[in-house]
UniProtKB/TrEMBL annotation:
Family matches, as Pfam families: FAA_hydrolase
Domain annotation Fumarylacetoacetase-like C-terminal: ranges: 77-284
Family: Belongs to the FAH family.
InterPro entries in UniProt: FAH, Fumarylacetoacetase-like_C, Fumarylacetoacetase_C_sf
Molecular function as annotated in GO: metal ion binding; oxaloacetate tautomerase activity
GO biological process, one term: oxaloacetate metabolic process
Name of this protein: Fumarylacetoacetase-like C-terminal domain-containing protein
Origin: domain of life: Eukaryota
Length: 287
C-alpha cells in the first residue's frame, strides 16, 4: 500500500490523505476516516485491511488531477546518518566509521516530490544527496536490533540538500544551518508501506542533475543498516510515529567531484529508489 498526501482544485488549500491504486494511476481519499495527514493514520495503527476497506468506499480520482505534496509533514524529528555508504566514505578518503554519525534537519526543510528547491543566496555550494528515508510506525525506546524493524511503517525517497560552505566552513563546522535551510528536504512521491519492500537493503538508488547521472548505488552498501540505526538511536532518543530517518547517501555528490559541482538556479534534480519511487525538483533562485 502506498500513501500520499495531496490537494485538489475542489479542496483548495486543504490537504487530503489518500491511497494509490496498485498501478499508481488513481488515488482514493481516506481523509474522512483517518484525517488529512499520514501521521494521524500511523498513530491510529489501523490494519491494512481496514485502510483498504475505507479506500474501497470512495470513488478514486486520477493521479493527474491532484497535486501531490510531501507524504509526511511536520514530523517531530528528522534524523540523518552521515557517512553511511562505503562509496561515499571512499570518495572523500575517510575511513569506514565504527559508529554512525547522527545529525538532524528541521521539519521546515520538507517540500513535496515536485516542489522547487531554493538556492539560498547565502550559499554558493548547494549539493545533492539522494537517500532512502524510513518512516517510524510506532513509539520506539530502547529497542533491540531484533525488534527494530517492527517499528518501521514504510519508506520514501528523500533529497538531503546540503549547503556545503555552511556545513563545513561556516557555523563552526556544525551541520545544522547547512542541512536545515528551507526546502532542503524534498520527500515523496508516496510512503510505501514496509509490506511491499521485502528487503530495504537491496534497492538501487540513483540521482541525476539535468539528465546526467551523478549517483548510482545500492542500499546494500549501507554501513549501518536500518535495524542497527534504530537500535542505536533509541538507546537515548525516543522515536515517535511519523519520525523520519534519512539513512545516508551513496557516492557521487557534487562536493567530491573533480572539479567540484554545485547546484544553481534552473538545475533539475531527479532522485529515484527502486520499489519506492521517483521525485523531481527544480532549483530556483532565492526570492
Amino acid at each position: 500500500m502506498r500513501f500520499v498526501q495531496y490537494r485538489t482544485g475542489a479542496t483548495g488549500a486543504r490537504q487530503l490523505l489518500g491511497v494509490l491504486s496498485d498501478d499508481g494511476t488513481k488515488v482514493s481519499d481516506i481523509s474522512d476516516r483517518y484525517g488529512g495527514d499520514l501521521i494521524t493514520l500511523i498513530r491510529a495503527e489501523p490494519s491494512l485491511d481496514e485502510v483498504k476497506a475505507a479506500a474501497s468506499k470512495v470513488t478514486p480520482v486520477a493521479i493527474g488531477d491532484v497535486e501531490l505534496v510531501a507524504p509526511v509533514t511536520n514530523p517531530q524529528k528528522i534524523l540523518c546518518v552521515g557517512l553511511n555508504y562505503s562509496g561515499h566514505c571512499e570518495e572523500q578518503n575517510k575511513p569506514i566509521p565504527k559508529e554512525p554519525m547522527f545529525f538532524s534537519k528541521y521539519a521546515t526543510t520538507i517540500v513535496g516530490p515536485y516542489d522547487d528547491v531554493i538556492a539560498h543566496r547565502i550559499s554558493d555550494q548547494i549539493d545533492w544527496e539522494v537517500e532512502l528515508a524510513v518512516i517510524i510506525g510506532k513509539k520506539a525506546k530502547s529497542v533491540s536490533k531484533a525488534n527494530a524493524m517492527d517499528h518501521v511503517f514504510g519508506y520514501t525517497v528523500a533529497q538531503d540538500i546540503s549547503a556545503r560552505d555552511w556545513q563545513k566552513q561556516r557555523n563552526g563546522g556544525q551541520f545544522l544551518i547547512g542541512k536545515s535551510m528551507d526546502t532542503f528536504c524534498p520527500l515523496g512521491p508516496s510512503v510505501v508501506h514496509k509490506s511491499l519492500v521485502a528487503d530495504p537493503h537491496g534497492l538501487s538508488i540513483k540521482c541525476s542533475v539535468n539528465g546526467v547521472e551523478k549517483q548510482n548505488g545500492s542500499t546494500g552498501e549501507l554501513i549501518f543498516r536500518i535495524d542497527d540505526i534504530i537500535q542505536r538511536v533509541t538507546e537515548s532518543i525516543t522515536l515517535l510515529p511519523g519520525d523520519v530517518i534519512l539513512t545516508g547517501t551513496p557516492a557521487g555528490v557534487g562536493m567530491h567531484r573533480k572539479p567540484a559541482e554545485f547546484l544553481k538556479p534552473g538545475d533539475v534534480i531527479d532522485s529515484e529508489i527502486e520499489k519506492i519511487g521517483k521525485i523531481k525538483n527544480k532549483v530556483v533562485a532565492d526570492a
